[in-house]
Design a protein that fits this description.
- The protein has 377 residues and is of the alpha+beta class.
- It has three domains: 2-74, Glutaredoxin; 83-104 and 159-376, no CATH class; 111-150, no CATH class.
- Helices cover 53% and strands 7% of the residues.
- The protein contains 14 helices and eight strands.
- A four-stranded mixed β-sheet has the order 2-1-3-4, with helices on both faces. A two-stranded antiparallel ribbon has the order 5-6.
- A hairpin with a 5-residue loop joins strand 3 and strand 4 (60-62).
- Helix 4 (83-98) packs across helix 14 (340-353).
- It is globular, with a radius of gyration of 20 Å.
């Protein structure tokens, strides 16, 4: 039995849990307070971030994207798109887990009257369940304080919040329109685009008290999609008798094209600014050999320093994240591996969305993960 170490309120755990459920992969979920996690998993992965998956042969993988990478080789029966749609699904996965993190964290931590008791209770039970209810508030508050401190480094400020909210509400409306026609982002079967979106749209935005009300009121079909992504059923009653297949890239529906356009508008500036920061860092660290960790301190997700990029009518000013480039590298690799005809289809989709230049992005160095930390490939 595969073990998934994570929790319901964890953004990235929601992504992996959904992948297992939708693809009928048996698993058992455990929290970080489980003795085996403390005694065996944590010493092996050397990284406190969740999720971590322990496969039935004992192999352990940390990071939701890395887990899905491994699952694609371990479970070849799981359908995945090819060609241009493969590029798109990996781009949307990267967008969802990096760019939508701003909305997820804003709506969780900036509405304490509605959310604080709920989320502090969640954290407290995760860490100190065995100690009883009287211990939960203190344990939960300690974690809540650390997590809410991430807002300024993510660029979530009084100046950027209106733009973050406006961009998120646009996405909700576009997704709601798409789910009138299709149960999933790429048609009638789930893809890594869906799993990526499931992280923020479930654990934070579709579960915390304040933002879940927004989703239910403004985008009820998105809320229904969240339910669908948490269920093991392949067929859904709203779309009966439809084969689980992806639509053709050449005939991608307008509702999907609008979603891609919104993702590009929100995410392209962040990717490009991070790539520029990485180029400056790489020039200053030209002596870093292949296999060296990006961070001299051993940080698993290091930064290349502050960046700035436009969003709606504001400028977001976060610290760059090397993980952004490692994630987008997946889409760039898929594009490089595509045939000439598939490249043309991908370019057509991204050009219409205003992001054709993203396909030509050249990273200063290739990134990889060694011992669950980002490194130079």
């Amino acid at each position: 039995m595969i073990k998934l170490y994570g929790v319901q309120c964890s953004l990235y755990t929601g992504k992996v849990r959904s992948y297992f459920r939708k693809n009928a992969i048996p698993f058992a979920e455990r929290t970080q307070s489980h003795p085996h996690y403390r005694n065996a998993v944590l010493p092996a992965v050397k990284n406190r971030r969740i999720p971590v998956v322990e496969f039935d042969d004992g192999a352990m993988v940390q990071d939701s994207t890395a887990i899905l990478d491994v699952c694609e080789t371990r479970f070849p029966h799981v359908a995945k798109p090819t060609g241009a749609l493969r590029v798109v699904e990996l781009f949307l996965e990267a967008y969802a887990e990096r760019s939508l993190l701003k909305a997820a964290m804003h709506y969780r931590w900036n509405f304490p009257e509605e959310n604080r008791a709920f989320i502090v209770g969640e954290f407290g039970r995760i860490i100190a369940f065995a100690n009883g209810p009287t211990a939960w508030p203190q344990a939960g508050e300690a974690i809540a304080g650390r997590m809410s401190a991430y807002l300024p480094p993510l660029g979530i400020t009084a100046h950027s919040i209106p733009a973050i909210e406006a961009s998120y509400l646009k996405l909700l409306a576009l997704l709601n329109a798409h789910f009138v026609l299709y149960p999933y982002i790429l048609g009638d079967a789930p893809s890594r685009a869906d799993y990526g979106l499931m992280g923020p749209l479930y654990a934070h935005l579709g579960r915390d008290p304040y933002p879940v009300r927004i989703m239910q009121q403004k985008a009820p079909l998105v809320f229904r999609w969240v339910e669908r992504m948490n269920a093991p059923e392949g067929e859904t009653p709203e779309y009966p008798d439809r084969a689980p297949a992806f639509f053709d890239a050449a005939n991608a529906p307008p509702t999907f094209r609008a979603i891609l356009k919104q993702a590009v508008a929100e995410y392209a500036g962040e990717v490009e600014a991070t790539a520029q920061a990485f180029a400056r860092w790489a020039a200053a660290h030209a002596d870093k050999p292949s296999g060296a960790l990006v961070s001299d301190k051993g940080d698993d997700q290091p930064s290349f320093g502050p960046i700035a990029y436009p969003l709606e009518n504001a400028t977001v000013q976060p610290y760059s994240s090397a993980h952004t480039l490692w994630a987008i590298q997946h889409a760039l690799d898929a594009y490089a591996a595509a045939s000439a005809a598939e490249k043309a289809q991908a370019r057509a989709l991204f050009a219409e969305a205003g992001g054709e230049n993203l396909l030509d992005l050249k990273l200063a160095r290739r990134l990889t993960r060694i011992d669950n930390k980002l490194a130079i490939a």
